[in-house]
Amino acid sequence: MANAYPSEAAIYRNGFLHRRVLAYREAGVETEVFYLHPPATESYEYEYEGVRVVVGDARAYERHIGENSYDSYMIHFATPSMVRPLRTNSVTSPITIWIHGFEAESWHRRWFNFVSDPATIRAAVRKKREYYDAQLAFMRELYTDDSLDLRIVNVSKWFQNFVVEPDAGVELSHGEVIPNFIDDKIFEYRPKLEDDRLKILSIRPYASRKYANDLTVKAIQELATRPYFSRLQFTLYGEGALFHETIAPLDGFDNVAIHNRFLAQAEIPNVHGEHGIFLTPTRFDSQGVSMCEAMSSGLVPVGTDVSAISEFVADGVSGLLAPSEDAIALADQVERLYFNPELYLRLSAAATESVRASCGRGNTIERELLLIQRGVRRA
């Protein structure tokens, strides 16, 4: 059960979830998707890459749960409307809920989106009252609910220990930490050459300041003051309300290619293959999936040492990290790779090895399937 799912017309909707479903099916687990979509007044079905998807509003979802029985229920993005039908229909099968971010965070976690002016601060406080307080109360009650056969999956230890548990004020007795799956069949390792360190890539949404694209721009501006800048090539892909205002300072740089669009997943490996460094600062991340995908392809991540990032990137071992909000330090890390091609090649190989160990099939899909199957056997 999900709040969105890919289709031919919208290939970006929860693509990470689709990768899971395909992997479950490859393992022989018959899987069906219900896409809870409140605007869908008429229920309908479609098929996407062999996966059957049922779409409907809350009434259709309630009816679907009542009329069907499944060995296991798996929820991505828990909300009252997603969980309520399981309770009202007295579902006894095991239920696994993945916690990804906003649904389990206190209102202040994304401070960077509302500190620019008084109006955004007032809007944030209003949203705290109208959404966050009720949602966190719901999550707190859900974590302690013993009427459901429930297990909770977080994508990083940092996120569980420093966000989920403290924000809800509970300790998860039935929590698991399993990162999002990075498919090395898609993001294949391609050995890098020394000159690949001169080609720097950014693939980010521009819908929130969480992605710190402004720091990417400032880092490029800083590098422009250094004598070797003309040897570097930058490629930025992205889309969102903040795009034009964020990238405006880069107008006029001949070695900065800007693409105001998202990439289809099938395109990303080829773009990875044309670059050597993934410039990926952030202000808040429970994992950093696009960063991990780039690492799987052999790119060296240059990011910020905040939130869960250091759980997936060891500074100086599998990538390079800069302090929070420090664009000059990001530029310095790019410079470090420029002057140390041997370090670059070593980090490239280590990045791939590291992310395969932490986010490869064995540590993600296989563990998820074991968790689900143990629950089914117990039930």
UniProtKB/TrEMBL annotation:
Pfam families xrefs: Glyco_trans_1_4 (PF13692)
Protein name: Glycosyltransferase family 4 protein
